[in-house]
Task: structure prediction
Amino acid sequence: MSDIDRLLRHDARIELPDDGFTARVTQALPAAVPRERTWLKPALVMGSAAVGSVLAAVLSPQGGALLQGFGDLMRWHAGSPAAITALAISGALLLSGLVLATDSE
Result:
């Protein structure tokens, strides 16, 4: 270790007197501003879920496939493309609902 390293490490261990500086600065800080756009996060989550659901419906097989998918799920045929699409749309909506329900802000 070089001399400069030793000096820096020694100086880093020395505690500087605060003399109430931290308390004065903390008291001088402005109060926290409440968030004005509380609707933005839920709107983004729901918008993303809606876009995901629309994409899943558009990219799914056409011709009543979504209803067929739910029918397949009721008959435990979860491997069909229609059933996978129905699960994807339902999962996107469920996930967005869970995110909104557990959001602490």
